[in-house]
Automatic annotation (TrEMBL):
Gene Ontology cellular component annotations, sorted alphabetically: cytoplasm
Residue ranges of coiled coil: none
InterPro entries found in the cross-reference section: Ig_E-set (IPR014756), IPT_dom (IPR002909), Ran_GTPase-activating (IPR051553), RCC1-like_dom (IPR058923), RCC1/BLIP-II (IPR009091), Reg_chr_condens (IPR000408)
Organism: Rapidithrix thailandica
Keywords from the UniProt entry: Guanine-nucleotide releasing factor, Repeat, Signal
Name of the protein: IPT/TIG domain-containing protein
Keyword Signal appears in the UniProt entry: yes
Lineage, top ranks: Bacteria, Pseudomonadati, Bacteroidota, Cytophagia, Cytophagales
PANTHER family for this protein: REGULATOR OF CHROMOSOME CONDENSATION
Amino acid sequence: MKVSKLKLIYSLLFLGLTLLASCSKDDDEGPVPLPGISSFSPESGVAGGEITITGENFSTIVSENIVKFNGVTASVNTASATSLTVVVPEGATSGKITVTVNGQTTTSTDDFTLLSIMQIVTGNNHTLILKSDHTLWGCGQNEKGQLGDGTTTNVMTPKQLMEGVKAVAAGYYHTLILKEDNTLWGTGDNTIGQLGDGTTTNRSTPVQLMEGVKAVATGYYHTLVLKEDNTLWTVGLNGGRLGDGTSTNRSTPKQIMKGVKAMAGGGGHTMILKEDNTLWATGYNKFGQLGDGTTTNVTTPKQIMGGVKAVAMGNNHTMILKEDNTLWTTGYNAYGQLGDGTTTIRNTPTQIMESVKAITTGSNHALILKEDNTLWAAGSNEYGQLGIGSTNNFHRTPFQIMEGIKAMAGGGANTLILKEDNTLWATGYNAYGQLGDGTTTNKSAFVQITLPDVK
């Protein structure tokens, strides 16, 4: 009897310990926490673009986070408990974002907006529009074959030119096209070798120029190519803008610098942003557009300043966006395009604004996108390129033009903008149909441009 009672006591004790261990284990693991999305940035974008989702209770293991854009699964690049970076998937549409972790799903409060347009670019008198399906569209002047449609006929409404395009750049009369396979193609004026195909023959159909290209930019008559190894190559009209130490024109690209992040070309000068965020300049400097404190031309890149985020250039002026989002300008200023309230030419960058998100230029006007997505402008308005409903000659101080702007581009004397609602608008000089509204009538106020639906 005593033995049986002892066995019973041991059995009950064992059972109690087992239950205690089980309860402790459950308490340690606890219920699976529900993930949460507090915000995502940017709030709009194109397929293939990257966004950051901020929230809580994400998995630190990338594969354990399932992210969908309106039901379409996205690739997750990096993950922490409070942040995910993801790539907007092909086939995504505007709508909610969901994150699923360990079977628990959370949905964003706000909608993500899928943009139908990836990039807008303007040459002197031609316009290029890259849609999110990677088709390239163009309109405007085509006398040199710069639209690449096999003709030299001007086009007054956007026309599809090519498929499989990743990025595009436009010079005065030439166009450079970066395809998805990282091959570079060129079309249009080539009288100075600016296409880089080893000839000076104009092209009306794009010809392949290089492989392994990461980015491309143009000046008026020269071309800047950033390869995948971050080397910078230049070709075309020189006079110092090619940065090769000479003034000799080139029809074949030549490497001039390593460790390059971005670049921009103006009428006669080149600005180079290196990976360490230092800004370098070369070329024509009569009006101080290089910002080195002189008006002496340069044939080899020289360092101008540090802490730079982006740069944009007009004919003879330069706009510099620093890492603290302040905007600085230098160079020619007869139309007030430096935005400093004067028409004084400057050879050293002067700060003119804060809280700036992006910049671009026309030949003699400046376009500024602020952090609140308002568009501001300064400079020449002779043809209505500022879009204010008049053709007052110029404005020396930036003033607000419009709200809700996603992107903008400046041409010779015209302006193109993409609004947050995916609509495209244009204003200014239109003699060649570059505004894309089906006419050749100049506009002093923005008109909406209609594009065919994305495939």
